[in-house]
Amino acid sequence: MSEKRFRKFHDRVSQSAGCDLTKERDRLPFAPDWFDSLAARIATGELVEATAAWVLYRGNGNHSEHAVHIYGKSGNPAVETPLRQRNCALDIAWLRAGHPREWLDAPLEMLQAEAGRRGVKPVPKTLISDAFILNRRRGIIADDRGQRLALVPAPKVADSPEFYKRKGGQNGKSPEHQRFLQWARVAHSPEFKELEGARSSVKRLNKFLLSEYKKWRNQEAPRTNSARSYKPSETSTNPPPPDGSISVGSPPAKAEEDEVHRLSIESSRYARFKDAYPRQRFDEAKAKPIFEGLKPAEQDTVLARLSLFLECERWQQTPQYIPFASNWLKREEYVSDPPPLLDIAAVSSSGPVLSRKDLEARSRVQRIADQLDLETAKQKK
User: Fold this and answer.
1) Closest by alpha carbon to 99, among 43, 45, 46?
2) Could you tell me if 84 and 146 are in contact, meaning their C-beta atoms sit under 8 angstroms apart?
3) Cβ(92)–Cβ(40) under 8 Å?
4) Is residue 344 within a helix (H) or strand (E), and if so which, with residue range?
5) Which residue of 126, 148, 193, 347 is most buried, as measured by CB atoms within 10 A?
6) Helices H / strands E in the chain, number of each
């Protein structure tokens, strides 16, 4: 907006206020350096303040509520063009480069061409967008105007969404959102009741999970922070305290420790089974669910009978014939007696013991070889 056009605007405002335009002192007072001060704020201030000053410069400076660009030649009506954030990025970069602000009144295409010629690059789009978002949160720039950029006419602290968020009143909702919720409570009563029920369920489940987490953390603390090992041992006993020592501890803490010790004993049955079974024949992915599916009494039976199998001659002298742990459990071989020692000479004389998959693979290879022999014989004939 040029100084001449602003002068005309000032005359109209003064005349409508009843001032005598023939007397200079009777005019409404205004700051003649208003545009210069806004341009200085845009050029030297922080980006958040610069964007707010730019909207004020392009909006109120052009007698408009929104940021617009007005240009018209003499004798032709002026053309008003709404401005966007990309125009703000170029204008801020232009003023911060030290170029005269009069170029902002030139046609937009001419300003863009001159900025390219002088090597002025617009401010990055992400920075401009973040600045406008922050100004909307502060309640300075209106957020209900669509793509148009406009300042709030009389901003108040209570108009800022950030104020409600920090204040905590009505869960950080603005007055407009509160009115909408009141309307929705009546217009969409079933859906609103369903939403409230879902929120209460989520709140209840979160409280339940929090209480369970506290219990779990209290149970895990002795396992991770205490130096005592909870691995069961039949011969291990607690050493007596030295003479003159005083036992420190309360009965509730000891009861909790005994409870954790009992849980550790139950969970260590599988660890004992895994450590005792021959490692080369232990398939944990299949054996673990089978073992944990047994009752505690059956697990004790498995551990007791495993020691007999480990001492038998077949498992000691021919470990390649030890069944996998999953098969040993699935077929309940631990119930029967340990198998006798195999006659290696008889097994070796009769050939290697092949599995079903190996036999099927051998038969397929033999069929392919027979087909190749037949084709070769046909070609020779």
Assistant:
1) 43
2) no
3) no
4) helix 344-349
5) 148
6) 16, 2
The rounded distance, in Å, linking the Cα atoms of 372 and 164 is 85
For residue 136, the enclosing domain spans: 31-155
The number of folded domains in the chain is: 3
Cα–Cα nearest to 174, from 159, 186, 184, 185: 159
Max mean pLDDT among 108-117, 150-159, 234-243 falls in: 108-117
- Is there a domain that residue 274 lies in? yes
3-state DSSP of 111-151: HHHHHHHCCCCCCCHHHHHHHHHHHHHCCCECCCCCCCCEE
Tell me the per-residue pLDDT of 108-151, one tens digit each, with 9 for 90 and over.
888 889 999 999 999 998 899 888 888 888 777 887 677 778 77
| pLDDT tens readout for residues 169-187 | 555 556 677 788 888 888 8
- Classify residue 263: in a domain, yes or no: yes
Find residue 80's DSSP bridge partners.
70
Phi–psi pair at 66, nearest 5 degrees:
-110, 165
Residues 6+ apart with CB under 8 A from 120: 90, 93, 94, 97, 99
- What is the phi/psi pair of residue 321, to 5°? -100, 10
Output the pTM of the full model. Answer: 0.38
